[in-house]
Amino acid sequence: CYIIRSKLGYLKLFELSNYTYTYFFPNTNCNNKILISNVVTRESVTMEKPFIRSSIELNEKQLEKLKTVMRYKVEIHGKDSFPTIEVELHKLIKCVRRKLSENNINLKYVKMNGGAASYVLADEDFLYADLDLIFALNFSKPETFDKVKTSVFDALIEMMPRTINKNNLHEDILKDIYISKMVKVDEKDKWSLFSLYNNVGKCIELKFVDNMHRQFEFSVDSFQITLDSMLIGDKIEKCNDKVIAESMYGDIDLALYHLNNGLIETRSPEEIRGGGLLKYCYLLCRGNKATEDCKKLEKYMCSRFFIDFPDVQSQQLKLIQYVDNHFNDVDENIFSYLDILYQVILNSTVCLMVYDRKVTLSMIKNLKNYYKYSYGMSAKGYCEHNPQSKIMYIPNNGTANYWIAVE
């Protein structure tokens, strides 16, 4: 990557050959990028040390999209006869933040991550499946984990409809009704996660983070938008303060280029729990295209996935959880997703014995047949898929190949 100085200003250089340079010019007044290709010679340009931005200020269009997301009415579906909690996103954040304060937890900042953040920054609108919120705090005291859990459940109780008798509700009930997954990591990395149950494939996750070494899987999901200036007062519309977005990938311009051009890119997938394999196949299912460098990393994604989930039971559990969080019960894309996962594992797995790979591939086939049956029955109204909550703890800095149940 180089910077070319020209009459237009500074042009970022992406691809080099003997005769042709392909580059784009970042317009500093907006996020739109002018793609330019031209034939130049090495003598006609001045090579300088590249300037890489890791953050940007949201422009007017992006700010309006963020306000729309913040006004979005989140649905947290209750199991059995419990009601659905419906609340605007900014009110949910404020409620959780207030409960943390009531439990004497100092919050550093709140950020939006995942598909919602990518949606805000993208040039074109798209349907996003995951809405992740990061609450930065200090986990130096062991009891903080319990205080965070209490704060989340207190917030859920407060947001429940007023018609519900809340006097007899406690954590054991709520974690089975409104929480699809809870994770606690307390090693070098310190963080906890609460995935709120949503049966239409809109994954809502609350992440409470002290330290997390790897904060992204792919460049297109590496964006984090600081929300604190949006949380002042009751009206989102009145917010005209500066809002900053950053990319954990490092180069936010390159990450935005990948996002707006449907490219899949990552680095060191062996550092990601599960290798990013399930997310990689999900991005392919959505029509994104892996770069040549990323395709070469498929074997590392598969290897890390099978290290973290060494037996077919844990593989199936993880896969079902991922499908539950990213697809609804009548989404035909589930079948395409499982087909893509099948092919990637078939073609890129080098760490398994032939028999073990066949067992995993057979599990994926059987799971696809199960979802086909569930899809057919749901369309006729005969049955409904009802995933169960799993509360787990990952030892050894989140890299162990086993889970411990959190009671």
Task: Explain what you see.
The protein has 407 residues and is an alpha+beta fold. The protein has 3 domains: 2-51, no CATH class; 52-261, no CATH class; 270-407, no CATH class. The protein is 38% helix and 23% strand. It has helices at residues 60-71, 89-102, 114-121, 143-159, 171-177, 252-260, 277-285, 292-295, 298-308, 312-326, 333-348, 354-380, 395-398, and strands at residues 2-6, 9-16, 20-26, 33-39, 47-48, 55-57, 73-76, 85-88, 109-113, 130-136, 179-186, 190-196, 203-211, 223-226, 244-247, 263-264, 289-290, 390-393, 404-405. The protein has a 10-stranded mixed β-sheet with strand order 6-15-14-9-10-13-12-11-18-19. Helix 1 (60-71) packs antiparallel against helix 3 (114-121), helix 7 (277-285) packs across helix 11 and helix 11 (333-348) packs antiparallel against helix 12. Keywords: Transferase. InterPro entries: TET5 (IPR012937).
